[in-house]
Each structure stands twice: as structure tokens, then as C-alpha cells.
TrEMBL record, chains A, B:
Primary gene name: purS
Catalytic reaction equation(s): N(2)-formyl-N(1)-(5-phospho-beta-D-ribosyl)glycinamide + L-glutamine + ATP + H2O = 2-formamido-N(1)-(5-O-phospho-beta-D-ribosyl)acetamidine + L-glutamate + ADP + phosphate + H(+)
Lineage, opening ranks: Bacteria, Pseudomonadati, Pseudomonadota, Alphaproteobacteria, Sphingomonadales
Cross-referenced InterPro entries: PurS (IPR003850), PurS-like_sf (IPR036604)
Job of this protein: Part of the phosphoribosylformylglycinamidine synthase complex involved in the purines biosynthetic pathway. Catalyzes the ATP-dependent conversion of formylglycinamide ribonucleotide (FGAR) and glutamine to yield formylglycinamidine ribonucleotide (FGAM) and glutamate. The FGAM synthase complex is composed of three subunits. PurQ produces an ammonia molecule by converting glutamine to glutamate. PurL transfers the ammonia molecule to FGAR to form FGAM in an ATP-dependent manner.
Protein name: Phosphoribosylformylglycinamidine synthase subunit PurS
Amino acid sequence: MKARVLVTLKNGVLDPQGKAIHHALEGLGFAGVNDVRAGKLIELDVDESVDDGAIEDMCRKLLANTVIENFRIERVA
Amino acid sequence: MKARVLVTLKNGVLDPQGKAIHHALEGLGFAGVNDVRAGKLIELDVDESVDDGAIEDMCRKLLANTVIENFRIERVA
């Protein structure tokens, strides 16, 4: 079974990578972009026995820094 | 309007970051994880006038390296 973990910076945390992407998009002439935030995507291929609680545990212990980051778990098929 | 761009490495491309995460999860005692792939998440806040074609253009020109990466565009609300 596949699961996706989306790790994003919390609101209020500075995101220089997102700012750089935003600036580069403008430099390339793309209009209408108001904001860009960069985050991480971690795709896990786990056994059926692994439940959401276990994945949340992985996020808290390793995948996300919960001081500055939020995470969201999505199951894919 | 918000859009998410999910950038993942193509199959067959080595993913040392994913391997390191996998190894670390095993070291922490998490069982049942078969594979881990690391990717990027880019959240765009764009005007309503920006359509999927424009976002795909951004991906091809800047956000993803299409030689080694796939990208997927998802609209959020």
C-alpha cells in the first residue's frame, strides 16, 4: 500500500526556497502567481498492517520537524 | 486559488535521500516499510486566470527537471 506524506512549513515560518521559486517564476514572465511555498513529499510503500497511527508516529519522530512544519498523510490506493 | 505541484523522481532514478529515510525508519524500529521515495511539494497560490496549462508550463520550465522527474498538478479548492 502506498502512502504520501506532505510536509509543509507552518504559517509564519520564513520560506526562502519558496520566495526564490516565486522570484524565478516572475523572472520567467509568469504572471498571476501570488505566493509560493516549498515543502517535502515523502512516498512510503508500506505493508497493509501499517496503519495511519504508525505513519503519524514516523512523521513525528523523523519525517517532519513539528516545531516548524505541518504534515498531512494521504493514502494512495 | 491554490494548486499543488508534486515532483517525484522517475522510476529507475536512484534516490539516496529516500534510501536514507528508509534506513533511518528501520533504525527507529518501524517495521513494514518496503520503500521510501523522496520528492518535492510546491504549493502555488495563483489567480483564477491561471489555468492548468500555465502551471504545466511552469513545471516544465522551472519546477521540475523532466529528464529525471515526473510532476503532477493538483488543484486545491
